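Hello,

Following up on my earlier ticket. Below are the two sequence lines again, exactly as submitted.
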Amino acid sequence: MSTTAKPGTQAAPGKREKEGIGGRSVPNWLPAALFLGIAAILPFFFESGSAFIDDAVLALAYVVMALGLNIIVGFAGLLDLGYVAFFAIGAYTIGWFGSLFFSEAGGGDGIHFGVSGVAASLPGIHLNFFLIVIAAMVFTTLAGMAIGLPTLRLRGDYIAIVTLAFGEIIGRIAINGDAIKIGDYKLTAGRQGITPVDKIDLPGLDPFTSLNLRPWYWVVLCMVALALFVSFRLRDSRLGRAWIALREDEVAAASMGVPLVKTKLMAYGTGAAFGGMAGTFIGSYNNTVNADQFQFYFSILILGMVILGGLGSIWGVVIGAISLTFINFWLIPDVLNEVPGKLGIDFDLTQLSFGIYGFLLVVMMVLRPEGLLPERRRQLELKEGLDAGESVFAVRS
Amino acid sequence: MTGAVAASKREGEALPPADALLVSEACTKTFGGLTAVNGVTFNIPQRSIVSIIGPNGAGKTTFFNMLTGLYKPTLGRITFDGKDITAGRPDKIMALGMARTFQNIRLFATMTAVENVMVGQHARMKGGLFGSIIRTPGVRREEKAAREKAHEELEYVGIRRALHDQLAINLAYGDQRRVEIARALSSDPKLLLLDEPTAGMNPQESAQLTDFMRKLRDERGLSILLIEHDMKVVMGVSEYVTVLDHGEKISEGAPAKVRADPRVVEAYLGKQG
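Thanks for your patience. The regenerated structure is below:
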């Protein structure tokens, strides 16, 4: 249908169409601009080496991971309990390509590319942080697709079990990697950890230090901005619609022309890439890549953030990640930790931190199972019990 | 079983398989020990409305699911538009131009009517991962065109503009059926498969749908394969009727001939006397 209407008259229906589900009238960019703007100036109100900025940096890194996991679990409905694997792969990427780990590389002189300062004169492989982030995203995307393949025939709980095992396998490999030799080199440094790790080195800026945390904060904020951008764009795209369709009714989606394998693998791959990106950052920020970090609890922590915020809800996930990080790293150890001592009970509250946020999740599930800031579709699915629960592979076999 | 040519000769019917849109040759589907569809040979001419009828449990929907790739045939061969689609993937068969609706409506409940119809265009669209993230001019244009086409298809099946942005789950039953047809039509299929489209409709709505099917054939050049229990609809609209009972084809031909076939009467009413 060709319309010759004036541009002015066409604007009205066009605007209405954009509203999407339930009449969303605020454009995506407005809350995003507000959030990023406020977040960007926040560090000026705190000392650059303060504990608050330290917690905030971690919180933002977890936001990136939670947004990544949200693509897999929230958008595509594939319950992934092994997200820690992508954190590990991302962290080891910088462990390998940004530290003294391969000390014999380049004949003992080291291999350097795009690095300045101390790192440029150290042995081992030292690549520019950006290159390492890109490499980590490639590795994790491939790993995400590799874990996706065996779960394609499965649904729901069964996917959870396979991904859980995958996370455990990567964790075990990290711990025992010091016994795995490839040529003359170990795969990982196991529980000893790879340390020190190169600090972020951006062109035109001095290498970052662990005393001045503001630059770290802004770098990870840029990562959050990217993750938000990708999440919003994908949610409102052909692929986003295909994910919702698959989540709701796999058989109908396949019958409507949605390719099952490709669409699911894209969710796994994209979600995993953000795990790798944040993992690289955390490896550099913590100055160590230690196998003890890559435990099952970490997957649950990130999944807890997604569920707390609201599955599939981009802003919900941001809120969930920030609040759970501050509960974990600030509220429990810094604020509440003294309470038992003052009451004359002799124990450390940090030992109970899992119990505490386990309790919080239970309270949450009773009072508001759809999350802090629920996504409308998910809320509806929960209320109506919508799930065809049928796998195309099960039907076709 | 005899081949398609022999079958149509035996029935003495003008079902030329040469220019048929879809040909099913001796298709059989067994589930464990149960034979749901047994050696059904069948074809759909271009631009025609063909019905499959039969008592409950006759294997009609199973046959449908084999055609659309949801079930792999145990035996037999299916050719669509000159291509062998036996045991092909449902999304690929859809992309070749075969779209369907479901007996129990299977809309994406939490998507709006328009979004549902846009999913129907998935195979026709190209926007990939990176294109969607960057939102290239091409992707932008494609999205806009897809949305416009979705609105057009919804209006074509008779959904008021005011309902286009309603969630599928909130639509009236009759409207949900219509949206499902619009979703199938939006892929510009050559063959539309309707699985009991008049279930739950009153006689007036059924009559409307009958007219609509003729309109589809005449205006858009579609072929329609219909599974239906409402004999008034079947006899009124079909050019050919195939009768299944216990998974086997027991009769085939023009509506009047099938209605008079004693085997059909027996299948529906039991042996007389």
